[in-house]
Each structure stands twice: as structure tokens, then as C-alpha cells.
TrEMBL record:
Pathway: Amino-acid biosynthesis; L-lysine biosynthesis via DAP pathway; (S)-tetrahydrodipicolinate from L-aspartate: step 3/4. Catalyzes the condensation of (S)-aspartate-beta-semialdehyde [(S)-ASA] and pyruvate to 4-hydroxy-tetrahydrodipicolinate (HTPA). Pyruvate binds at residues 49, 207. This is 4-hydroxy-tetrahydrodipicolinate synthase. The gene is dapA.
């Protein structure tokens, strides 16, 4: 399935690791099946939630290939191809495109950050080289820099700039960027507690951590909005705020992996420097998951 009509809930999928720290492909298959059964509209692999920063290129391609084959065309599969090195991002983008992924997620260059022209060229280099849709990823809390409104204006008209994942948490910025939303350039919320507000600005959905544990609820929330049932969409958003907040009680993806483990879907394994959550976080997660009917 292509990206043309993609909207709604795109899950930012975790990468499950086994007791030895290797990728657990059996668990990865369970996660993909759980998402498809829950109505997820698209799957993103190798993002922040997927711990791609601690994975090798070989592991990245193995995960991308596995998920693409497991999904078997039922929903689009997008691959995180971001790096603070433009050349590395380009190489990874071309590699994931060759594997047949439907789209790419491109993050702003972190640590070295660059100036305005450098950030523009960082994205344009990849956009010029690939033949599949790309989502720009604005998350200054992680990267230390943002995609300025001016650069969004410069990039949004590129034929391979399919949209932006807006994860700044700044509604004023999102409102400014919403002026560039069109049939050819979409905006997705990168914050699970701001999905309905982003939809109200013309957004097309969410790239979601929440959907890892509750794909059906996130999908229903988006579909309710698109069907004109604003009250139902708002009810799901507000009714799940404690679950969403518990999933971010510590740095992502620590809580969501603990939650998935408590649901029996994965072994609770992380790549260093990530570590298991505190007892307080576990208690909060358990209460929120029970409240959402996800565990007994």
C-alpha cells in the first residue's frame, strides 16, 4: 500500500530485544500483528521509539525487511533514516528505499545542529536523491534545533516532501506551520497528548507511541475526527491522558517497553544507555493500563 491516502494513526514501533540483547523477531512479528489487528493505519520502524540510535545498519535493514514482509502491503511501512550526518542519512535513505519501504522519516541534525542553510540542505540532499515520500521530523527537545517556519516554507513544495511530524509541543509553532499544509504536504502530531489539537489545524493524524499499546483507541480517535464526530475524538483524547502521560513518565521508549512487557507482547529489554524504569513508573503504568482495559 502506498502513502497517497495515508492518514490516521501511524505507530512508532518499538524494537523488541531478547534476553541476550539481540533483536527478538518473534516478538516483532507479534507486535506487527497486534497493530494490524488494532486497525493501525501505518507503521514506522527505526525511529526514536525503535532505539535505532543504538542499532547497527545491518540490524536496521533486517528490521525494515522483516516488518515490510510481515505487513505484506496491508499498510504503509515508513523507515527512520535520520542522522546528524547528512551523508549517513542519505545512505540510509537509499538503502531503505531499495528494501521497498513506502516512505522515510528524516530528523533534524542533532548535536552539531547546523545553521539555517545547513538544515535546509540536510533535508534537500535526501529529498533530491530518493523517489519515495519523506516526512520531516521536528523534535527540538531531542535534537537541540528545530525546522524553522522559513525552512518548512522552502521545503514543503519539494515533490518528495510528503509531510512533517511536529513534535515540539509548541502549539504556536504548529499553528504557523499549518499554513503550509496542503493535499501534497501533511502534518502529523508527534505528541500523543496533542493529537486532536493538531487535527483541528488541518493535521492528518499522529505518529504515535501510545498506539504501541492501544492501536485500536488511537485509530478510532482519528477516524472519529475525520467522520466529523469531534466529541468522540475529544473523549478518547482526554480519556487517555493519564495513559499517555504514564508512557512518557521517563524517557521514551523505556515506559512503553515496560508496558508492552506487562501486556505479554515482548521481553522487557533495552539497549544501553537506556535502563529499566523505576518502581514508581511501573506502578503508574500498571494503573493506567488497567484503567484502559489493556491488562487485568
Amino acid at each position: 500500500m502506498g502513502m497517497d491516502k495515508l492518514r490516521g494513526s501511524i505507530v512508532a514501533l518499538v524494537t523488541p530485544f531478547d534476553e541476550r540483547g539481540a533483536i527478538d523477531f518473534d516478538a516483532l512479528g507479534r507486535l506487527v500483528d497486534y497493530q494490524l489487528e488494532g486497525g493501525t493505519d501505518g507503521i514506522l520502524v527505526l525511529g526514536t521509539t525503535g532505539e535505532s540510535s543504538t542499532m547497527t545498519d545491518i540490524e536496521d535493514y533486517e528490521v525494515a525487511r522483516f516488518v515490510k514482509e510481515r505487513v505484506a502491503g496491508r499498510v504503509p511501512v515508513i523507515g527512520g533514516a535520520g542522522s546528524n550526518s547528512t551523508q549517513e542519512s542519505l545512505d540510509k535513505s537509499l538503502g531503505l528505499q531499495q528494501l521497498g519501504l513506502d516512505g522515510l522519516l528524516l530528523i533534524t541534525p542533532y548535536y552539531n545542529k547546523s545553521n539555517e542553510e545547513g538544515i535546509y540542505r540536510h533535508f534537500k540532499t535526501v529529498l533530491d536523491a530518493v523517489d519515495i515520500p519523506c516526512i520531516l521530523y521536528n523534535i527540538p527537545g531531542r535534537t537541540g534545533c528545530k525546522i524553522s517556519e522559513e525552512n518548512v516554507a522552502r521545503l514543503c513544495g519539494h515533490p518528495n516532501a510528503w509531510g512533517i511530524k511536529e513534535a515540539s509541543g509548541d502549539i504556536a509553532y504548529a499553528t504557523a506551520v499549518a499554513r503550509y499544509v496542503s493535499d501534497d504536504f501533511r502534518m502529523f502530531s508527534g505528541n500523543d497528548d496533542m493529537v486532536v489539537p493538531i487535527l483541528s489545524l488541518g493535521g492528518s493524524g499522529v505518529i504515535s507511541v501510545w498506539a504501541d499499546v492501544a492501536p485500536a483507541a488511537v485509530h478510532e480517535m482519528c477516524e472519529a475526527w475525520f467522520a466529523g464526530d469531534v466529541a468522540r475524538a475529544r473523549e478518547i483524547q482526554l480519556g487517555n491522558l493519564e495513559l499517555v502521560h504514564s508512557l512518557f513518565a521517563e524517557v521514551n521508549p523505556i515506559p512503553v517497553k515496560a508496558a508492552l512487557a506487562s501486556m505479554g507482547l515482548i521481553h522487557e529489554g533495552y539497549r544501553a544507555p537506556l535502563w529499566e524504569p523505576t518502581d514508581e513508573t511501573r506502578s503508574r503504568l500498571a494503573a493506567a493500563l488497567k484503567g484502559a482495559g489493556l491488562i487485568d
